[in-house]
Amino acid sequence: MTHVFHRHLQHTPPVAVGGQGLFLRDAAGREYLDASGGAAVSSLGHGHPDVLTAMHAQIDRLAYAHTSFFTTEVAEQLAEQLVRTAPAGTSHAYFVSGGSEAVEAALKMARQYFVEIGQPERTHFIARRQSYHGNTLGALAVGGNAWRRAPFAPILVEATHVAPCYPYREQQAGETPEAYGLRLARELEEAIVALDPRTVLAFVAETIGGATAGVLTPVPGYFKAVREVCDRHGVLLILDEVMCGMGRTGTLHACEQEGVVPDLITVAKGLGGGYQPIGAVLAQRHIVDAMSQGSGFFQHGHTYLGHPVACAAALAVQQVIERDGLLAKVRTDGDFLGQALRDALGAHPHVGDIRGRGFFWGVELVADRASKAPFDPAQKVHARLKKKAMDLGLLCYPFGGTVDGNQGDHVLLAPPYIASREQLVSIAALLA
Ligand code: PMP
Questions:
Q1: 141/155 Cα distance (integer angstroms)
Q2: Is the CB of 404 inside a 6 Å radius of any atom of ligand 1?
Q3: Do domains 16-47+324-431 and 53-323 have the same CATH topology?
Q4: Which of 65, 90, 147, 170 suits a disulfide with 70, CB 3.0-4.6 Å?
């Protein structure tokens, strides 16, 4: 009998009792190879000694100080680290406790920015179908999964959803990737114009789609064209890198590979690497200046923002990534992982597409390869796959089957950056 309010109320999961490196252990003594880092969270694996040492030292020194009274050395150091490594023009890091909170804060920053600069008529967000931005009401409103929004639709802020960048299904025959990207940017512009550009706050997108679409990597030029469209209409660009950011794709921020600088970047998951709940909004100077020169106050905040132990964990994770050259490792070993997945699964009759970057890969499952027809959601292929993988001692992150547009079943692979090549090969072999 459990008194924990598990999301799946009819099923109590195994009890995790230990973790080391890429492995988790349950109370029955079973070991699991963590091929998804939880949900793309664990960047350095479990029990990393440098992170634990930094956290212990911080707990001994100071575990908590409320930000209405104090800042802390460790929050200042983490913000300095994040701003130094962020795209040009980033001036501040606003701390929160997770991904949804980061998105929520970014949406409110966008709104308050326009209020401060005298454009209060901007009230509308544009986001993408088949996206996930979190479960708080604002993040849910911009999220592109109609099934998730459905029960709450009447109480959500205004958001319009345009097409995601999903070449496997939506790039037309004869259309080059570049032309496809430009078409999507044109469609975004049409949506802005249809709403009246003066009413649009921001376009919100995951740089690389994650938890609803099996890793959607953008086509070349797409985000540059999107940035131009946003600039033309004074609309902010918010890139959600909660899942794909903090090194997961081989650069610290995925948007670096797209050659664009968004107004706001949201990060979480890999920031604290699972050692502590922490997220951040990385803000460009003009956003912060508008608030500091206007009301002088961001009208938002949570009790635990900038929690010292969370900041210590995140700072240690980031320092290890830098010290050990893990971004370069993720780039080269990421190509190796992609090849291992293609070798093991490429010819499988139910694998439609394998796509990704760095240590962020998605496998799209189909009932029929030729027609790309997804499985009937009633078959719950993703849930069966998750169970089978766990029985084999593998943690991967399957989801899907909710019939939302053409969303089918996907498996997400996001191993910790420290994974050895042998472990990457094992992941591909176990999946096959
Ligand atoms: N944005 C993205 C892109 C995500 O993948 C997630 C979580 N899967 C979130 C936001 C929400 O993060 P959290 O679950 O930490 O609230």
A1: 9
A2: no
A3: no
A4: 65
In this predicted structure, the answer to whether residue 405 has a pLDDT above a threshold of 60 is no
Whether pTM > 0.95 for this model: the answer is: yes
Banded model confidence at residue 401, pLDDT cuts 50, 70, 90: low
Q: Residue ranges of the domains in the chain?
A: 16-47+324-431, 53-323
ipTM of the complex: 0.99
Tell me the CA–centroid distance for residue 343 and ligand 1, in Å.
30
Looking from the CA of residue 241, the nearest atom of ligand 1 is 3
pLDDT band at 12 (very low <50, low <70, confident <90, very high): confident
Q: Compute the 3-state secondary structure of the chain and give helix, strand, coil in percent, each to the nearest 5.
A: 40, 20, 40
Please indicate whether residue 211, judged by its CB atom, sits closer than 6 Å to ligand 1: yes
Which atom of ligand 1 is nearest to 277's Cα?
15
Q: What is the pLDDT of residues 203-235, one digit of tens each?
A: 999 999 998 888 999 999 999 999 999 999 999
HEC letters along 206-259: ECCECCCCCCECCCCCHHHHHHHHHHHCCCEEEEECCCCCCCCCCCCCHHHHHC
The number of the ligand 1 atom at minimal distance from the alpha carbon of 244 is 3
Q: What whole-number percentage of the chain has pLDDT above 70?
A: 98
Q: Options 1.25.40.20, 1.10.10.10, 3.30.470.30, 3.40.640.10; which CATH number does 53-323 get?
A: 3.40.640.10
Q: Write down the CATH superfamily of domain 16-47+324-431.
A: Aspartate Aminotransferase, domain 1 (3.90.1150.10)
* Cα–ligand 1 centroid distance for 102 (angstroms): 9
140 closest CA partner among 104, 182, 190: 104
Please tell me if the CB atom of residue 242 comes closer than 6 angstroms to any atom of ligand 1. Answer: yes
